[in-house]
Amino acid sequence: MKWTEQHIPRQDGRVAVITGANTGLGFETARRLAERGAAVVLAVRDTGKGRQAAARINGDVSVRELDLTSLDSVRAAAADLRTTHPRIDLLINNAGVMYTPQQTTRDGFEMQFGTNHLGHFALTGLLLDLLLPVPGSRVVTVSSTGHRIRADIHFDDLQWERSYSRIGAYGQSKLANLMFTYELQRRLAAHGTTTAVAAHPGVSNTELVRNTPPFARRLITWLAPLVTQSAAAGALPTLRAATDPAVLGGQYYGPDGLAEVRGYPKLVSSSPGSYDLAVQQRLWAVSEDLTGVRFPVGQSAAVA
């Protein structure tokens, strides 16, 4: 079966919070969920751009400020959402940065790790109790095929203070997204209502490449018709992970084409290292310490 937007079930009565939803993959995800009847919250850093995006979407759409580079902003956004939405059906951790020059978040974390992983880790922990009572609720986190490239969790230098690599730091952050999803799913299993799922968009033509070095960016632009797909197509794996009734917790969805570059969404596998339970659990503990956020779900089974 070629899964398309036509397979998205009606979402009437459901609330979907999507980070980074004013452009690219997040916008396309928000647009389609709203068209299917969901009440969609665009959680974005620039609320002006968020309102412009909301005006282009038909349906129930609101905008909330969220800057994932600041834990204070994450806490404020979570508190705001708690006052306006007593329940959440879908939390889609979509926002991200890629290949940024060496810089830190407001809390001193390496920008890619802090934004892509720690910001979403904290947001999920602060909102999870609004999902747990809701049957069929899901946390969908967007990873990347980049999790396979020079990727490891560098516990001895998580913030890349010794020697910075744009590619390595991005790979670490996207690997962390997957490990977070897998560990979260084990912790959610006992509750039986909420599931954690991951997705990746293949190679999609979005603003995410803006920090790519100039030569590589020109090459990507030249090859775009051959090796990329539109943001609308790139959003399909996320939409399937969020809405397909057959999806199970702990699964990972990506394009079905060669090397998962583009195509229709299907169930895919992540790198062998991403399934390392000991590393997943260590990353979880470190993430709790760095963010100060504790989840309202128990510890998963210990690793022998």
TrEMBL record:
Q: One Pfam family from the UniProt entry?
A: adh_short
Report the sequence similarity comment from the record: Belongs to the short-chain dehydrogenases/reductases (SDR) family.
Q: Quote the PANTHER family the UniProt record gives.
A: PHOSPHATIDYLINOSITOL-GLYCAN BIOSYNTHESIS CLASS F PROTEIN (PTHR43157:SF31), PHOSPHATIDYLINOSITOL-GLYCAN BIOSYNTHESIS CLASS F PROTEIN-RELATED (PTHR43157)
Q: Which domain of life is it from?
A: Bacteria
Q: Which residues cross the membrane?
A: none
Key word Oxidoreductase present in the record? yes
Keyword terms: Oxidoreductase
UniProt keyword Disulfide bond, yes or no = no
Question: What's the protein called, per UniProt?
Answer: NAD(P)-dependent dehydrogenase, short-chain alcohol dehydrogenase family
Q: Which GO terms describe its molecular function?
A: oxidoreductase activity
Q: Which InterPro entries match?
A: NAD(P)-bd_dom_sf, SDR_fam
What is the scientific name of the source organism? Lentzea jiangxiensis
